[in-house]
């Protein structure tokens, strides 16, 4: 007897409602394969403003490594040498608390800003969007044409014209990625060091060169292939949206009250007649979907994939102008703004976030402005024990590290303040070069009468310009008695 055929079990996770936009992503087909996006070229006032703004940002990014303030770079994040410069101010590892508070300020700022204005950052200033939409996408349009031409080119057989277009596009993409990689590297090691590497024979910097080629390939992969997937799958910010936004947040939104019920505009049909027929202003032209780089339909509401690039706003404004209706069917608005006509509301949540932000900013300001110009630390030399001198005194060897955060040379003197004894700086006087760290050895000698059993607390004064600038505390190891 044949066994009964087994019923194919379908797990609930496999059930996808393809009519519900929340149940699937726009960039994958029913087999889970990537759907390549062909967003149409967009034009309009927001695109114009974003273009100007992106030029400004790109100019700052490319010129940044060459801009100096008081001889220091605008921004340098040298993780290898643990040297950080922000707006010409040098920060040392000793200033990590300032960096930690600055990171908290940045995070809270993002929360406040997102709660009030949604993902404005993503659309206008995020390097991924700026580079993708304002640089790489424009090059693609220039070489391969608008969306329908790109589609046709991808379907076409590999003839000479297609090879030439694809090859030139990918060579330019890689060259640009290499350039971007070098610019980012100059924010890490400084442009002078980068220039040295570039002008030296490549064989002397094989490791660095391999890293650079690797990074360039990564950037190339992101802008040539990965594209909007970086925003949808990698960037955590988009996912924070659901907890940060509420009905008062300003987002790119479709005015469903004005737009619904959507339906095509019939020839010679007046808008009054549409209203009478129960139709809204949306003429169902799908232009807002055609220009969306993430492939979503903003008419479904705020979605995680939306990077607030404003392309749908421009596309819809153009349609509204053509059909003689006011612009702004898709616009920056909050849900309450659309449903109740409310302007930006300062909610208790926004006030709470802002209070925390102001408190953190105040703390940061205090830390930055009260930051000492000199910072010294003293540690016993590793592995060293006490020694007894011929005159019966005991000695300990220490290492002192002094960071000079000023832009001038700083002579520093160290004095043993307690207990009585002698302190000798190896190699004579300490002169710390501007914005450098100086490391030196110290020998402290104490009379046996001043010693406690085992360890004796030691106080050393740090003096600069005749003034005491810091007190160091450490321990002197002696014999137990
Ligand atoms: S572009 Fe405007 S009119 Fe056209 S479908 Fe989108 S919302 Fe409707
Ligand atoms: S929905 Fe509009 S704003 Fe959002 S990503 Fe698409 S085109 Fe840009």
At a glance:
This protein has 16 helices and 16 strands. By secondary structure, it is of the alpha+beta class.
Task: Give a structural overview.
The chain has helices spanning 45-63, 96-117, 120-124, 127-144, 147-155, 160-189, 191-199, 206-226, 228-234, 236-244, 256-259, 271-276, 287-290, 311-322, 335-340, 348-369, and strands at residues 68-69, 72-73, 75-78, 83-86, 89-91, 251-254, 330-333, 374-380, 387-388, 394-404, 410-418, 421-425, 430-432, 437-446, 455-464, 467-477. The chain has 481 residues and is α+β, with helices and mostly antiparallel strands. The strands form 5 sheets. Strands 8, 9, 10, 12 and 14 form a 5-stranded antiparallel beta sheet that branches. Strands 13-11-15-16 form a 4-stranded antiparallel beta sheet, with no helix packed on it. Strands 3-4-5 form a 3-stranded antiparallel beta sheet. β9 (387-388) and β10 form a beta hairpin. It is elongated and about 110 Å long. The termini are far apart. Bound molecules: iron/sulfur cluster (2 copies).
- Write down the Rg: 32 Å
SS-based class: alpha+beta
Largest sheet: 5 strands, antiparallel
- Runs in which pLDDT lies below 50 for 5 or more consecutive residues are none
Approximately how much beta-strand content do the residues carry?
15-25%
Number of helices: 16
Distance between the termini: 96 Å
* Anisotropy-based shape: elongated
Would you tell me the overall average pLDDT?
A: 88
Question: Helicity level, as a percent range?
Answer: 40-55%
**Number of DSSP-assigned strands:** 16
User: What ligands can be seen in this structure?
Assistant: iron/sulfur cluster
């Amino acid at each position: 007897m044949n066994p009964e055929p087994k019923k194919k079990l379908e797990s609930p996770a496999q059930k996808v409602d393809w009519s519900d936009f929340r149940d699937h992503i726009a960039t994958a087909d029913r087999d889970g394969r990537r759907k390549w996006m062909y967003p149409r070229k967009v034009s309009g006032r927001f695109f114009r403003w974003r273009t100007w703004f992106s030029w400004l940002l790109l100019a700052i990014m490319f010129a940044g490594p060459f801009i100096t303030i008081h001889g220091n770079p605008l921004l340098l994040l040298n993780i290898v040498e643990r040297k950080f410069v922000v707006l010409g101010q040098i920060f040392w590892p000793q200033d990590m608390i300032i960096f930690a508070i600055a990171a908290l300020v940045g995070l809270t700022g993002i929360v406040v800003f997102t709660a009030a204005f949604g993902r404005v950052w993503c659309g206008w200033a995020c390097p991924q969007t700026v580079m993708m939409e304002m640089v790489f996408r424009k090059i693609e349009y220039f070489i391969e044409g608008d969306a329908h031409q790109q589609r046709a080119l991808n379907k076409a057989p590999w003839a000479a014209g297609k090879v030439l277009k694809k090859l030139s596009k990918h060579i330019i993409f890689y060259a640009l990625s290499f350039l971007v990689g070098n610019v980012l590297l100059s924010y890490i090691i400084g442009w002078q060091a980068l220039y040295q590497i570039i002008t030296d024979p490549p064989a002397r910097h094989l490791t660095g060169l391999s890293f650079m080629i690797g990074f360039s390939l990564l950037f190339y992969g992101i802008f040539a292939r990965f594209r909007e997937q970086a925003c949808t799958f990698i960037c955590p910010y988009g996912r924070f949206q659901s907890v940060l936004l509420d009905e008062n947040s300003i987002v790119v939104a479709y005015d469903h009250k004005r737009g619904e019920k959507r339906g095509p505009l019939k020839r010679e049909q007046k808008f009054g007649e549409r209203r009478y027929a129960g139709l809204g202003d949306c003429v169902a032209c799908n232009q807002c979907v055609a220009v969306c780089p993430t492939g979503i339909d903003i008419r479904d509401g705020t979605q995680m994939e939306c990077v607030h690039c404003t392309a749908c706003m421009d596309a819809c404004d153009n349609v509204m102008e053509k059909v003689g209706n006011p612009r702004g069917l898709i616009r920056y608005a909050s849900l309450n703004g659309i449903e109740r006509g409310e302007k930006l509301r300062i909610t208790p949540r926004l006030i709470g976030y802002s209070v925390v932000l102001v408190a953190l900013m105040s703390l940061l300001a205090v830390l930055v402005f009260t930051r000492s110009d000199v910072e010294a630390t003293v540690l016993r030399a590793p592995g060293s024990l006490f020694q007894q001198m011929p005159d019966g005194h005991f000695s300990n060897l220490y290492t002192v590290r002094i960071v000079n955060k000023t832009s001038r040379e700083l002579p520093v003197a160290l004095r043993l303040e307690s207990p009585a004894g002698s302190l000798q700086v190896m190699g004579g006087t300490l002169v710390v070069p501007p914005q450098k760290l100086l490391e030196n050895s110290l020998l402290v000698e104490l009379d046996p009468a001043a010693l406690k059993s085992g360890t004796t607390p030691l106080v050393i004064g740090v003096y600069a310009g005749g003034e005491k600038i810091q007190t160091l505390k450490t321990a002197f190891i002696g014999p137990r008695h």
